[in-house]
Amino acid sequence: MDDDTPTATVYVNNINEKVRGEKLMHGLKQVFTPIGKVSKIHTRKSLKLRGQAFIVYDRVVDAQTAVTKLQGFSFYGKPLRLAFAHDPSDLTLKAREEVPERRPAHPKKGMVAVKLEKVGSSGSRAVPKATPVAQPFVPQAAFGAPPPPPPMPPGHVNGAVMPPAALPPALPHSVLFCEGLPVEATEEMLSTLFMQYAGFKGVRMVRARACAFVDFGSEQEATTALHGLAGFKLTEEFALNIAYARQ
């Protein structure tokens, strides 16, 4: 396979090695699944191979989108480095009804192989040979950043202060409202999350109130995005709080 040919498998490295197990798997799912259907996520557990993972998408186009848009994405304080795996995964070959012509790079079934190149004359160290990609997308918001600021002050109704819990829920429509956003959140970061859903039009940030409005083409499209991203963790401490905007 040509080195520049994209595959449905994304190789990820520079992952924060302090994040492991279920916490790591959960975080990777939250970052990569909004882009497209993920068949499998492989993480490396051995001490020497920590900080690496393979994300296997059903479609090559979704893998291309992930490499382009999540290149440099801050994940628990470290920018992710992404490249295409040079060989398709066993899952991808099985979907094409093809027989793999190689042995897995790891004793565990289904582990994806990547081509390695020697570093230095001794050849004692090997690193994945990454495929160059276009200009990296580096959002300012960080996954796993410091805790968010205190919540917004209570609402006001007819001049009287009213606790948020007492306010009636807004009726469904095509505009969503995100409140209590952390200081690291940017319009670019929110756009990256919501643009995966059909009908997305744009984001309007209100920094003075730590909130944002997200516009969709219809009520149904806004509802799909609300259900898909409700509770999504922008940072280790902050879960996205989404509701319908008040008309």
What do these coordinates show?
There is one protein chain. The chain has 247 residues and is of the alpha+beta class. The protein is built from five helices and 15 strands. The protein has two domains: 9-138, Alpha-Beta Plaits (2-Layer Sandwich), CATH 3.30.70.330; 155-244, Alpha-Beta Plaits. The chain has helices spanning 21-32, 60-69, 90-95, 187-194, 219-229; strands at residues 9-13, 38-43, 53-57, 74-75, 78-79, 81-84, 116-119, 125-128, 142-143, 155-157, 160-162, 175-179, 200-206, 211-216, 241-244. The chain has a four-stranded antiparallel sheet, covered by helices on one side. A four-stranded antiparallel sheet has the order 13-14-12-15, with helices on one face. Strand 4 (74-75) and strand 5 (78-79) form a beta hairpin. It is globular. Mean pLDDT is 75; it is low at 105-119 and 130-140.
